[in-house]
Amino acid sequence: MKKGKKLYEGKAKIIYATSDKNLVIQYFKDDATAFNNQKKSTIEGKGVLNNRISEHILSNLSQIGIKNHLVKRLNMREQVIKLVEIIPIEFIVRNVASGSITKRLGIEDGTVLKEPLVEYCLKNDELGDPLIAEEHIYAFEWASKKEIEKVKKMILRINDFMIGMFRGVGIKLIDFKLEFGRIKNNGRSEVILADEISPDTCRLWDSITDKKLDKDRFRKDLGDLIPAYTEVAKRLGILHEQSNVSAVNVTKLSSIKRKK
Ligand code: TMP
Questions:
Q1: pTM of the model
Q2: CATH class for the region spanning 87-206
Q3: Measured in angstroms, how far is the CA atom of residue 15 from the centroid of ligand 1?
Q4: Residue with the nearest Cα to atom 15 of ligand 1?
Q5: Where along the chain do the CATH 3.30.200.20 domains lie?
Q6: Ligand 1 pocket check: which of 131, 201, 217, 232 to mutate, most ligand atoms within 8 Å of Cβ?
Q7: What is the block-wise mean pLDDT of the chain (260 residues), using blocks of 10 residues?
Q8: Rg (the chain; Cα; Å)
Q9: Atom in ligand 1 nearest the alpha carbon of residue 36
Q10: Can you give the three-state secondary structure of the chain, one letter per residue?
Q11: N or C: which end of the chain has fewer CB within 10 A?
């Protein structure tokens, strides 16, 4: 498959065209941002780990019937995905209160929610991805009622699956962010899961110690982000127990692959 021109560059990923108009290449960068781009850094090896972790989760979701954009991983930093028309909403799923909800509503960090809570944010960096109500989605026609009903059902299945998957490896799924997009299927529009699912887009705490194994290590200057993401990958069985993925190692591996 031939890699074409850059179509879009986001904060953590780049999208390239391919020779097939329905497929694009998603490249995982090492850039990390937080608080709507106010805090920025480059963390060597992060993109490689997110590529692998997201591939693992999305292919598992595919096996339980959650349609998503992943076609296949190409190399250490790239995957072929279906080109979707992204729905401009970030769907935040919370099982335990942490992050913005604790500040916004004064809820104590770590409060376990009785039911998963789904929040909607408008995907607009200039406005700082503001929280919106479901009614805003219909009022401004960002998605139809039918699409949101379908998305909500998918979200609950994804959450159930991911809670179980992480629980099995000693990790609590605190919250995460999902994005969905439209593809044409036999001329009809269909909504599928898109973007990535990784420690950049989830809060993951060790089940016993509550140690943070996600991007909060960067947001809160806790350090050791690569060892934490590596720990997640190892526990999920993506990396061998004995493999010592230092930032240098992953970067070396990815550049070897890219030179091909
Ligand atoms: P929040 O507590 O900052 O609202 O974040 C909730 C979850 O969503 C957390 O796991 C991080 C993830 N998230 C993203 O992946 N991208 C974003 O732009 C934001 C704001 C949150």
A1: 0.93
A2: alpha beta
A3: 21
A4: 201
A5: 6-84+226-259
A6: 201
A7: 94 97 98 93 98 98 98 98 98 98 98 98 96 98 98 98 98 98 95 98 98 98 98 95 57 44
A8: 18
A9: 18
A10: CCEEEEEEECCCEEEEEECCCCEEEEEECCEEEECCCCEEEECCCHHHHHHHHHHHHHHHHHHCCCCECEEEECCCCEEEEECCEECCEEEEEEEECCCHHHHHHCCCCCCEEEEEEEEEEECCHHHCCCEECHHHHHHCCCCCHHHHHHHHHHHHHHHHHHHHHHHCCCEEEEEEEEEEEEEEECCEEEEEEECCCCCCCEEEEECCCCCECCCHHHHCCCCCHHHHHHHHHHHCCCCCCCCCCCHHHHHHHHHHHHHC
A11: C
**Residue 101 alpha carbon, nearest atom of ligand 1:** 2
CB of 69 shorter than 6 A to ligand 1: no
| Residue 105 burial (C-beta neighbours within 10 Å; 0-12, 13-18, 19+) | exposed
CA 82, CA 68: separation in Å to the nearest integer? 8
State the amino acid at position 57 in one-letter form: I
CATH 3.30.470.20 in the chain, residue ranges:
87-206
Q: Enter the CATH code of domain 6-84+226-259.
A: 3.30.200.20
Query: Tokens 């979707």 map to which residue?
Result: 84
Counting from 1 in the atom list of ligand 1, the atom nearest the Cα of 99 is 2
CA dist., res. 135 & res. 139, Å (int): 6
Pocket flag, ligand 1, residue 177 (CB < 6 Å): yes
CB 202 near ligand 1, within 6 Å: yes
Which tokens hold the place of 243? 């493999």
Say yes or no: CB of residue 203 within 6 Å of ligand 1: yes
